[in-house]
Amino acid sequence: MTTIKLDLGCGTNKRPGFVGMDSKSFAGVDVVHDLRRVPWPFADGSVSDIHCSHVLEHLTGSERCQFFDEVWRILVPGGKALIITPHWSHESAYGDPTHQWPPVCSQTYFFTNRAWREQNAPHVEMVCNFDCAFKGVSDPRDDYVKNVDQATLQQRMSRNINTFMELVCQMTRLD
User: Which domains does the chain have, with CATH numbers?
Assistant: First the structure.
């Protein structure tokens, strides 16, 4: 089966080489479909890579669960999804009135791992199973995170307000 690369919620900024899906028919959008409507119009295991920037925070909690399950469904085993959201500690996570509560944080992604859910949140009915790695993208105006070691960076990422503008999660589909 031939796979595609998918840019979810691409708007007017579709990534080169990706199929763009958005709820609005912007120039360059290939598939007009609202992420809230499942299933998405892609076959199981038909996508190798997903890019999704500043979309997830617009979904409610239950819609986020459906989102993760759909991402898992359409990705090939071992497929990657790069999800970018405002970092929970930055005012940009709260400033946009269209963002839904709660803000996305690294803990959000723990729920996408089946073993973690079974042990810590068996009440959450999701089928997805991902391995996730995170990083914070600092505010370019902030020297607080430049030239520090990884442990210090992780500590600052988890405890300081307005230091990181974005949370970037690389999700890998597990079976």
Answer: 4-173 (3.40.50.150)
